[in-house]
Design a protein that fits this description.
Elements (H helix, E strand, L loop, with lengths): L2 H8 L13 H5 L6 H28 L1 H5 L8 H4 L4 H19 L4 H18 L8 H20 L6 H24 L17 H23 L6 H4 L1 H16 L6 H7 L1 H20 L3
Helix pairs in contact: 3-6, 3-7, 3-8, 7-8, 8-9, 9-10, 10-12, 12-14
Subcellular location: Membrane
InterPro entries: Prenyltransferase_related (IPR050475), UbiA_prenyltransferase (IPR000537), UbiA_sf (IPR044878)
GO molecular function: transferase activity, transferring alkyl or aryl (other than methyl) groups
């Protein structure tokens, strides 16, 4: 029975929070709470959760020796020996089969994106994670694919502003994680590619990505036709939240963005404020 908890940890369920991005497109279109869309979004969430877990397992298999040498990661199920490679591989294959079976009930565009995510993520694990620039671009692309997939699953149009904001917003998250990892010398053995970046290179790209994200979000909020200025007002918590996040990163707290966003009360307040204002902007203006 001790194996089951280890297998669950191997699937990294905490990382499933990233799949919340699947809700963004239907939420922005004012369709999230329609009964049909809710069921479809739930299916797409499950499919992405299973496939992403399968990819995490493959990555852990590839990094098993490196993780054993790392103080923080040596307790992972594979690195610690709680789960064997064969058991991990069997679980990964099972998750892939179930994940694509769930996706088979969704539109073909969604299935294509899920397959693209699966292939690209595994290419990352097999070697692309050691290629400067390509590595963080792939991770950011994975976030963007989730957001686009939410629109494809519900047959909703994807706007140019949506693509720009999610794309560069994803880069902000990934680059800040790399900067935090680089600031901690203990992690140099687990992500050697960081040493390939010149001083301040990641900080420069982060600054550019942040500027594009905020500018694009601002242009979107002022471009939509509304009676009430809720979208424009949401610029305040969005900007404050991003600045707070970057400040935390500068203090070395950005290695686990999914945990940081859920633990910092300031970020939680900004997130809820933004969600509430966008809810009013989208749903109150459309009814």
């Amino acid at each position: 029975m001790q194996l089951i908890p280890s297998l669950i940890r191997l699937m990294r369920p905490k990382q499933w929070s990233k799949n919340v991005l699947l809700l963004v497109a239907p939420f922005a279109a004012g369709q999230l709470f329609a009964s049909r869309e809710l069921v479809i979004v739930a299916q797409s969430f499950v499919a992405f959760a299973l496939i992403s877990s399968a990819c995490y397992i493959v990555n852990d298999i590839c990094d098993i020796e490196i993780d054993r040498a790392n103080e923080k990661k040596k307790s992972r199920p594979l690195a610690s020996g709680e789960v064997s490679k064969n058991q991990a591989l069997a679980l990964s294959i099972s998750l892939v089969i179930i994940g694509f079976y769930v996706a088979s009930y969704l539109p073909y565009n969604f299935q294509f994106l899920l397959l693209a995510y699966f292939i690209i993520t595994n290419l990352y694990s097999f070697g692309l994670k050691n290629q400067p620039v390509i590595e963080f671009s792939i991770v950011a692309f994975g976030f963007t694919l989730r957001a686009i997939a939410g629109g494809f699953a519900t047959d909703l149009p994807i706007t140019k502003w949506f693509l720009v904001v999610t794309g560069f917003g994803s880069l902000v998250i990934v680059l800040s994680k790399r900067i935090a990892e680089g600031a901690n010398s203990k992690n140099s053995s687990t992500r050697k590619v960081i040493a390939e970046y010149p001083p301040n290179f990641l900080e420069l790209i982060l600054a550019i990505s942040t500027a594009i994200t905020l500018t694009s979000y601002s242009l979107w909020s002022f471009s939509i036709n509304q009676i009430h200025p809720y979208a424009q007002i949401s610029l305040i918590p969005v900007t404050m939240g991003i600045f707070r996040y970057l400040w935390l990163v500068s203090k070395g707290h950005g290695e686990a963005p999914e945990e940081l966003i859920l633990k910092d009360l300031y970020l939680i307040a900004c997130s809820f404020s933004t969600a509430a204002l966008l809810f009013l902007a989208v749903y109150k203006s459309s009814h």
